[in-house]
Every structure is written in structure tokens, then in C-alpha cells.
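Entry 14. Structure prediction run on the chain below.
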Amino acid sequence: MRLHSVKLNNYKSMREKEHNEIIIEPNITAIIGMNESGKSNILSGISKISFLVQPKDVFASTNLNRNCGDNDKISYTIVLKALPDEDKSLQQDTMVEIAEKSFAVTGGFLNYCRALIGHKLEKLQEIAKTNPFKFTGNDADLLRQRCAQINIEKSVNIPVVDAAIKSFSSWTNKIPADQREQYSNLINEVQILWEKVCGSLPTIFFRDEEKKLQSLYTGEAIKNSLQNTNSLLHDLVRYLGFTHEQLLEAVSGKTDGKTQDLQDRIQNSIEEKINKPFQKFYTPERITLKARFYANSLAFSVNSNNGSTMTLGERSNGLRWYLNLFIDVMANEVPSRQVIYLFDEPGISLHVNAQKELLRLFNHLANQGNQIVYTTHSPYMLNIDNHGIERIRATVKDGLGNTKIYKTAYDPQIACDSREDTLTPIVQALGMSLSDTFGPAFGKFNVVTEGVSDSIYLTAIGKILEVDLSQFAFIPVCGASTAINVCTILYGWNCSFMALFDYDDEGVEKGGEIFRAKYNYDYKEHFIYLKDVSMEEIEQKTYKTEKVEIEDLVNDLDAFLQTSGYGELSKTLKAKFYADALKDESYMCSKETLTAFRELFDRLLACKEKQNRDNCN
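Output returned:
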């Protein structure tokens, strides 16, 4: 199963009443928000969840929201959804309610339990009630308690059922010899089926410590790292099956056969426990980790499938981050599938390209059947391609210090003074993602617009009109003057381009007229206006009284906003909500809007064809 949602009731900065639920995407979920808005609290709360053990430290009074009353308690409300290939009985949503002294699972998991193990538990309960163990006193009381705990009629208390099954298993040798085999077979079947049932539950892995394997450890650094439980070298040695003393012996500098044999055994263990499974975890290239032993020093190098060997520090930050994660995962015995990875500000110290590489690695993890939830402030850690913007959750703190979680950063309920800060990384990500395309977009027609909203409308309505958008690169900038600067760069790169200006004072006087007077660019060849006007109309300055912005082409925008119940919004938010509604088909734009944009695309294509002809000549 996968994690669909978590309600964090009264945990730290979350309250019980509203906006305390985070919806988790099937693959990748990004959480954004200002500093101190509660992003880390969300990850901390999710990280405390265990489906097999009753969480304890989560309910400490120090974790209770400071605004809570005496009767308010911390609790979780969790929804799990079945994976496509799982048992039919799991297809109903699974509900998990966890409080300090209760743990109730209903829905799909309960159905699955009943179908797979219910009759076995009933039989076990029936036998146990006869007290074949001959228990008396406190032991008899415990037996009656365990019999009641394996009742899964209304819900499943997973930790309690698990403890009860373990108790029944430990009592096997107390059964008379002539009855033991039958009982032993039954309890073994119960254990196997119970493990299978629990195997459908996801595992949560929170990597809040930036544990890193160093390229070189020397002198005291080796001993200090081995003694530090937050050191990745400490975890690696434990996972490989060696003691601290054995590693220190391997770097003692001795050249005798015993030391050489120990070094070989450590490297062989790395090969079996790290390198071979890492090939499945990381597929872009074949990577082999090697340990090098010297006198009082230990070095790690990486060999790739092209034959080159580099020190660990010479490899990309993205690969090293991924290798560190893998060692951490393996050392903590995390399964390879149905893992919910939680990362707080991953790659915060990495440069831009390495952060983008992390996003690719996240996709790789997600494609293996895992979920990734991470917090970030960086626009480079937000992938908005392929509906990626839908994966972003926003956090905002109200005046009382309570965190509110929103499924979209464009939610109209976000207060205006918070919305701008919340949207900043998304707007930057939009700008960077789109501007990244115009540098190498030599095979596309680069259309420079005065704002983000222009690009959103063109893309959304262009899809409905079935325009081949792959031939365009829409580049949103801030105003007509900036558009001119971007176009001059495109001209220098010999890229095909067109500036699309508003037909208003700024678009004409700071845009098109500057193009004509200063750069000798021709109207309808390198720039056009949103309104199809003649040079005579421009000279008569009809834009003073007949101005046209992109919103004027969206004939039904006001009607859409009123129907949807949105209040005052920025241009970008209006465009985003409108585009979202078109995409999910909850709204159909008017014929007048389609006609206006069809005419605009026709003019853009005509300009594109003219430039192509001129370039050929």
C-alpha cells in the first residue's frame, strides 16, 4: 500500500480543526513555505509513524501544540491506498487512527486480514481459550488478554496483535508433547500469514542527518567516526558485519597474511552487500565502491562501467548523495519497495546542477515503487514539468503560530501577505524552467511574453486548440523592457524569436516602438501585439483607449472566477486556476476565448513561417 494522507492532530505547530492534513502524491511530494512555517514539523510528525509498533515519543507533552487546551491530545488520522498489483481485498481505502493509547486499522487492511488470516486467528483463539498451557494466576490473566487481542472483528490493533502472536509462539513448548505438533503447525501458519499481511504496509524512512561517507579517513578521524553513531562509516562497518577493532586492524599497516585476509574479507563484503544491490538501486551507470587500506588511513574510491576510477570526492555530488542514502538505507534494514522517504532540505549545500540531479534520482526512487516527501526553499528542487506543480504543498503559519497545510500553493485561502512568499520558489522555478529552454532552443520558435500569466494561458488554451506546442518555447519575463533584453540575447544566439507585447502604453512605448526605433526590428516579423492592429492605429495611439492585455483575450475569465468562488487574485494565480480547471475538464472555456487565441496562434505561426523563409533566403 502507499501513503495517501496524514492528519497531524495537535502535533507541534499543527492543530486539529483545519488545514492539518497533508496529501501525499503516489511518487514525489514537495513541501514549500517560509522559514519557521512548520515544514520540518510535518516531516517530524510523519517520521514518528510506525505501522507495526505503537509510537511513544510522539505523544510527549513537549510535542503538543502550544495553543491546545487541557483536553486536546495528539493523534494521527492516516489513509493508505492499495497499489494496482495488490490483493483485491485491499482496494478499499485503509484508515489508521493512532492515539496515545489506541491503534485502530479499518477498511482494506482489515478486509485483507480477515480474508487471509481471520480463520486461523479464530482457530488459535479457540484452542488457546482451553488453556492447553495449564496457566494459572497472572499467566492465565495474560492468556485471556492475548486471546481477546487477536480479535479482528471491528478493527486491527497491529502492534497488539503482533505482540499476541509472538506470545502464543513463545508458549509452544508449554503445550503437552502429544498436542504440540498440531499447535506448532498452526502458530507457524499464523506467523507466516501475519508477516504477509503486514508486508503490505509501507515503511517510513526519515533521513534527517546528513551522514556522508568521506573519501579519506586518517588517524584519529577513523576512531572518532567509528564511535559516532551518526557517522556513516560507523553504520557501514556494522552493516558489513565487522567490529571496530577489525577495521582498525585492517588499517594498522601490517603486511602479514592475517591482515591481508581481513582486508580482502571487508572488500568482498562491500561487493556482496553494497555493490551488487546498488546496481538495482542506481541504474544510470554501473558503480563499484572500493576500500583502500593504508597505514593508519582508509580511502574510498569509485569505479564506473567506463573503466575510470576516481576517489569518492571526485564523483558528482548527486551520485555521492545517492550512495550515502543507499548505505544508510541498507544499514537500517529498510526494504527496497514501498518506502516513504522523508528528506528535510535535501541538497541544501549542493550547487544548482547537483540539486537538479537529485530530482532525477528522486524520480528513479519513485519509479521503483517508493514515495518521496521533501521540504525545500530552492526553486531548482521544484520540477514543474509533466504536471509537477501538482506535487507541491504549501505551509503557512497564522497569527497564533499554527501551521496550515495547503494542497496547492495557489490556494485562494492563503492570505495575500503570505501568498507572495509562499509562491516565490514556484514562480522562480517557473521562470528558471522556462528560461532554461531558451538557451539551447535553437530548433524552436522562442516567444517572449511580458509575464508568467501570458505563458500559462498560451500553453493551456493551445492544448485545447491542439496546437503543436512542441514548436514553441514560451519565455515569461517581467515587462516589455525586460522582453527587449531577452530578445537581444536570443538574436545574439541566432535563435528564432518573437516578442509578444500587450497593446498598452508599456507594450507599445517601452516595447514595440523601442524595437523599431533602436533595433530596426520590423512589426509582425520580430514582435507583435496581443491585438492585431495596423501601423496606422499604432501611430494614432489607439492603445491609449483600446488597450489589450492577455486577460482581455480570455473572454470568460471573470465568469470563471465568479463561478469558482475565488476572491482577489494576482494575474498569475488567475491564470493558474483557469488552466487547472481546463486541464481537469471541470471548466470549458468559451467559444469567444478559443477564437481569440486561435487568431493569436495563427499570427504567431505566420511570423514563424516568415522568419523561416527569410532565413532560407
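The CA atoms of residues 92 and 453 lie 40 Å apart.
Filed with the rest of this week's runs.
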